[in-house]
Design a protein that fits this description.
The protein has helices at residues 2-20, 22-28, 34-48, 50-67. It is elongated. By secondary structure, the protein is mostly helical. The protein has 4 helices and no strands.
């Protein structure tokens, strides 16, 4: 379960970063169907909920480093 949550957070963070870079945005996030549609939706989640996503990344890092 930990690995899936970390993977999803990393995908959301990466897609949000790609959305900020104009060259990459036009290449990766132009399609809104299929696999690239899922990446587009992850980038929208990362942009709109950036505070919640960053808190979740910090919490998962703390959990993986100190608790587990």
């Amino acid at each position: 379960m930990d690995g899936i949550a970390v993977f999803i957070l990393l995908v959301i963070c990466t897609c949000a970063y790609i959305r900020r870079v104009p060259r990459l945005r036009s290449f990766f996030l132009s399609e809104k169907d299929g696999f690239f549609g899922a990446l587009y939706k992850a980038s929208v989640i990362g942009m709109r909920l950036h505070l919640l996503v960053s808190v979740a990344c910090i919490a998962s890092a703390f959990y993986l480093l100190f608790v587990k």
